[in-house]
Hints:
Layout: H1 10-27, E1 32-36, E2 42-47, H2 55-69, H3 73-78, E3 103-108, E4 111-119, H4 123-135
Amino acid sequence: MADAEYTVTLADARRVIAAGEQQAQALGQPMNIAVVDAGGNLVAHVRMDEAWIGSIDIAINKAFTARAFNIATKDLGDNAQPNQQFYGIHASNHGRIMIFAGGVPLRRNGRVVGAVGVSGGSGEQDQAVAEAAAAAF
C-alpha cells in the first residue's frame, strides 16, 4: 500500500469530489469530477446527473495533465498557445494532455501528490469547481 503522505487516498478523493459536487450544485452546472494519485492513475470519478458523457474522459485527462506537469491546466494552456514555450504539448502523451481550465494539482506538505480534473461547464465554471475541490484536500 502506498504511503498516504505521498499520494492521494480514496478517502482524500471522496472528500475532494464531495467539495467539487457542492460547488457544481451551487453553480447549477452538473460536472464530471476526477481525482488521480501521484502516478496520475485514476482514484475516483463521479459523473453528476445530467453531466455530459463526453466530459468523462476530459475530466480524467485534466487530472492526469495537472499531475503529469504539476501545473494547473489553465496555466499550462496559457503557455501552450502559438509562439509560447509549450505550443504543441497537447499532442504529447497520446493526446491525453488538456490545455484548458479545470485541472488542479493536489499538494500535501508542499509536494504534488495527485490532482483533480473537472469538466462539464464553461472553462470558468470548471476552474471554479476544481479550485473548490482542491481546497478540500
